[in-house]
Amino acid sequence: MPFGHAKDGRRVTQYQLCGAGGIQMDVLDYGGHVQHLYVPDHAGRLADITLGFEEVRGYEETEPYFGALIGRFANRIAGGRFELAGKKYQLPLNNAPGGHPCCLHGGDFAFNHYLWETEPFQDGNLVGLVFHGASPDGDQGFPGALKVKITYTLTEENLWRVDYEAQSDAVTPVNFTQHVFFNLRGEGNGDILGHRLRLFADYFTPVDSGLIPTGELRSVKGTPCDFTTQRMIGERIDESDEQLGICGGYDMNFVLRREGVQDGVLAPAAMLCEDTTGRAVEIQTTEPGIQFYSGNFLGEKNLGKNGSHLGRRGGLALETQHFPDSPNHPEFPSTLLHPGETFRSTTTWRFFVDPGLS
């Protein structure tokens, strides 16, 4: 159905995916944004558990990247600079945490602003959308003409799957993610500090004052970043800790356990639960990392779809990805895509009601 127009006059369309298992997802061809995500609680009551906007303008002008496709490069690149084969590249500087400019989420006009060529499909009980796009050589400063195909699939088991594919005619870094924000109590229903989180990660990549990884892989053991067993997000979020202080809460990349798992094979990444509703989501991915952001910079200026003020930490993001600033860290898993290769990545979110919760 029509969803208004972008500022430049482009017509935006909303697609509604109704899964056979009972969940519903509303998606825009503008930025691939997941606008609504309706999931039942333990009593079968549906609520919209993702943050977003009711108008295109919100997605054009506001920074939180609610429900957006992210690329060419998710997360931060220090100084917006990297070097390939002796040639230096400069990207837009659209973020400056701690007064240190960087390129965030691909630049000023990245995947979250694309009007994607979109094809809906249905195959038995599977429903979904295929997004096609092209990023020309030099787009936002990145080398190589990039062809992109991204597929959203909703299954009868209430599993949402995102498959990413890309090819380039020159060596270029790529790092895609989906920036959905969750509040399992429902959008606008308080903060996420009472949610329980488990991350399948024994290490994280600590950052400097500009939120750029130092290159260290630090054990979570004995730190507030230890989510190896499920615990409340708010349990240690305000402790006196160097990394929490830098980030204003949780905003770290965690190194997922992939020992013995082949490249391209899904492995557990996270489990998120909310006790009062019983809603839960299990995340699996082929990616080596996941960024956990606890909504530290959300505030009263951020209005929900029902007009309510979201407030600080009114939602959280769990972004499966390669590590931030990877082009400047050869010790990290490579993000380089070469001509003749196809980049592939998959992440799944399985929504369910935990019978052990009230």
Structure description:
This protein has 358 residues and is mainly β. It has a single domain (2-353), classed as Distorted Sandwich (Beta-galactosidase, Chain A, domain 5). The chain contains two helices and 28 strands. The strands form seven sheets. A nine-stranded antiparallel beta sheet has the order 11-12-13-14-28-24-23-18-21, with no helix packed on it. A six-stranded antiparallel beta sheet has the order 17-26-25-22-19-20, with no helix packed on it. The protein has a five-stranded antiparallel beta sheet with strand order 1-2-3-4-5, with no helix packed on it. The model has no long low-confidence stretch (mean pLDDT 95).
Keywords:
single chain; 358 residues; mainly beta; Beta-galactosidase, Chain A, domain 5; six-stranded antiparallel beta sheet; 40% strand; globular
The secondary-structure element order is EEEEEHEEEEEEEEEEEEEEEEHEEEEEEE
Radius of gyration: 19 Å
Tell me, rounded to a whole number, the average pLDDT.
95
CATH 2nd-level architecture: Distorted Sandwich
Helicity range: under 10%
Span from first to last CA? 37 Å
Number of strands: 28
Topology-level CATH name: Beta-galactosidase, Chain A, domain 5
Strand order in the largest sheet? 11-12-13-14-28-24-23-18-21
The outline comes out as globular
Give the low-pLDDT segments.
Answer: none
CATH class: Mainly Beta
The DSSP helix count reads 2
Largest sheet features: 9 strands, antiparallel
Instruction: Provide the structure class.
Output: mainly beta
The total domain count is 1
How much β-strand is present in the residues?
35-45%
